[in-house]
Amino acid sequence: MTSNTIAPHEVHDITFSSGDKFHVVVFGGIDAEYTRRGETPPPVLFCLHGAGMSCSSYFSLSTHLIHPQHDETDGVGMHPDESTDVVRVVAYDMRCHGESTFTGGEANLTLELLMDDFSAVLRAVKETLFPDTPRLYVVGHSLGGSVAVNALSKEKELMNMVAGVVLLDVVEGTAKLSLKHMTSFFRTVHINLRVWRRQNVGSYNVAAMTTPTAAAQ
Question: Counting CB atoms within 10 angstroms of each CB, which of 56, 88, 108, 214 has the fewest?
Answer without folding.
Answer: 214
